[in-house]
Amino acid sequence: MSPVHLFPCPACSHPVPLELRQAGQSLACPECQQSFDAPKLRELRQLPVVGNTVAPQSSAVRKKIRSGMLAIGLGLVLLFGSSGFALYRHAAAKLPRLTPDQVIELQNQDIEQASINQLYGWWDEVYPERHKVEWQETEVKSQIAQGERLILISYGLFGIAAVGGCLALTALVWRTAGTRL
């Protein structure tokens, strides 16, 4: 923003608003269309000030920036919000909802359906190390770990969507309130 000074047109005496950046330039009077040289900067600063102005190009640029911010913000909300939601739903499906009794039941089913060779193989794997048999338990644990990782990634996507929402909200507030950047 620069101060606007009133300079009387040399031909018709109509007051012509001039900004500091127009000092020394050749201009045309908006009233009589006669061209004249604007006073030098030192002389221009001695003229009466009528207010501040913003160049018309900069207000158009601001409008484009606000529109761009709004579009980018809404795009972030839609893209990352929907991605986060979809990933969260997928992760929730990965998390098994098994009680300890259900895990034992699944292990017992595996034992009942196993051949004698599989049972000997499991015994050989388990007995020397004296570990508890974890047939289904390892698969359940890996599904839980994968589901938890996916949920954390979905939280990150929700965070990016929230940033986009803030950007869009800021652009809307600036647009409706007419606030300058």
Structure overview:
- This protein is α+β, with helices and mostly antiparallel strands and 181 residues long.
- It is built from five helices and five strands.
- It has helices spanning 41-45, 56-94, 100-113, 116-126, 135-177, and strands at 2-8, 15-19, 26-28, 35-37, 49-53.
- Helix 2 (56-94) packs antiparallel against helix 5.
Using DSSP, what is the number of strands?
5
Largest sheet: 3 strands, antiparallel
The neighbouring-strand order within the major sheet is 2-1-5
Give the count of helical stretches. 5
Run of helices and strands: EEEEHEHHHH
Low-confidence blocks of residues: none
Assign the structural class, choosing from mainly alpha, mainly beta, alpha/beta, alpha+beta, or little secondary structure.
Answer: alpha+beta
The radius of gyration computed from the alpha-carbon positions, rounded to a whole number of angstroms, is 37 Å
Overall pLDDT = 79
The proportion of residues in beta strands is: 5-15%
Based on CA inertia axes, which overall geometry fits?
rod-shaped
Termini gap = 12 Å
Helix content: 55-70%
Helices and strands in order, then pairings?
Elements: E1 2-8, E2 15-19, E3 26-28, E4 35-37, H1 41-45, E5 49-53, H2 56-94, H3 100-113, H4 116-126, H5 135-177
Antiparallel strand pairs: 1-2, 1-5, 3-4
Helix pairs in contact: 2-5
